[in-house]
Amino acid sequence: MTIRVIIVDDQAMVRAGFAALLAAQPDIDVVGDAADGRQGVELSRRAHPDVVLMDVRMPEMDGLEAARRLLDPPPGVVHRPKVLMLTTFDVDDYVYEALRAGASGFLLKDAPPADLIAAVRVVAAGEALLAPSVTRRLIADFAARPAPRRNRSVRLNGLTPRETEVLELIARGLSNQEIAARLVLAEQTVKTHIGRVLAKLSLRDRAQAVIFAYESGLVTPGE
Amino acid sequence: MTIRVIIVDDQAMVRAGFAALLAAQPDIDVVGDAADGRQGVELSRRAHPDVVLMDVRMPEMDGLEAARRLLDPPPGVVHRPKVLMLTTFDVDDYVYEALRAGASGFLLKDAPPADLIAAVRVVAAGEALLAPSVTRRLIADFAARPAPRRNRSVRLNGLTPRETEVLELIARGLSNQEIAARLVLAEQTVKTHIGRVLAKLSLRDRAQAVIFAYESGLVTPGE
DNA sequence: CCGGGGGTCATACCCCGGTATCACCCCGGC
DNA sequence: GCCGGGGTGATACCGGGGTATGACCCCCGG
């Protein structure tokens, strides 16, 4: 089964070069190319490639926006290609945006041709691949990050399921009445639960409870 | 300038195989090998290699602990090699620990020999490299993460400096009295500020204010 | 010069939130 | 059977938090 690829780059030379390189592989078909993001997205919709090679900087619509549209398609569009981002030289902040958008890889154009070919195969297989410098940055960034909140703060274990539930609703900003309604309880019962939560966690009021919920990872910013 | 490498793995066959493979490269010298983590660390201290190939699972001291010791050496030890982790097959949670410890790469042993050699060179050059499946997971993990909240939520701009200051103290869990004391104000003034904050942000009470502070990135979990 | 926004504070009021105490039910384990 | 923990709830109290209104000061820009 051959890998269907399209190339999106504003430089004709680059398109021609990559196309020649990839088309020479028995397992790779270049099924089209486009000169900017908008055309790229459109082409992808028609040609339904397995992999889209996407330059970052382009006129009309840049590679990031195009990638986002391909990877988070509007309702009705079922096709969802893998996206391999390419950049000419500098490893800038685009990387993060691209990865967040769901790109499967990020390569520098000055990488050896063999790497590009290998990358296409890797990406088509559902795996991911990054340029070494990008990998380094990503790892550094990852390591710097606090540690993925395996926290579930020890103290949180002291709470009963119900109490945890109430705590979470507090952390969502609900009033006692609202919590009572949500859980089908008397307001007083909610108060009782809250009282116990505050006592167990040595908190003064619901505001501190909200803080605790965030700090412990019970709830997380941005959903 | 040749790359000095040591190999740490409990299987003699693996050590021999990798050593032969790498030693055949003109730019790579295998300057030693060890059968467990403890010996590996000791050897590294003596042989000061550029790159340490480290198996994850080993008796005595596993690769993760050994990597941590190499990458975060006790005072007095200046040498700090790059560490390239290897695992036999499964991509388990060790990956994250290894990366957090500061490893420069993570490869599967079933990777093509050429990849291993390339990886050693990449790592020696100060870059990083991961097995595609690891890369995929890392990206997925990265993308899942809230997004570095450079938000400073637009609405937050509507707040005056003083109001923002008060909001932050609320988000730290202080009471009105405490805030007044901290800012050398009358409690009533604090109330006034809070009232305006709540109004401007359409919040009901300080609990919701805390939520807003976290969601907007004004304050962040884990300091 | 004057208007207005930011910052400060007082008085007054109300109610939600938090505390205390007690009580009932259900269930699982000793 | 009894005990204890989890869950539920009522009554009662009070104090902090939030609201409303009005006032004064400072400073800056039109």
Automatic annotation (TrEMBL), chains A, B:
One of its GO terms (biological process) is phosphorelay signal transduction system. Residues 152-217 form the HTH luxR-type domain. Keywords: DNA-binding, Phosphoprotein, Transcription, Transcription regulation. Pfam families: GerE, Response_reg. GO terms for molecular function: DNA binding. InterPro entries: CheY-like_superfamily, NreC/VraR/RcsB-like_REC, Sig_transdc_resp-reg_receiver, Tscrpt_reg_LuxR_C, WalR-like. Residues 4-124 form the Response regulatory domain. SMART domains: HTH_LUXR (SM00421), REC (SM00448). SUPFAM superfamilies: CheY-like. The modification 4-aspartylphosphate is found at D55. This is DNA-binding response regulator.
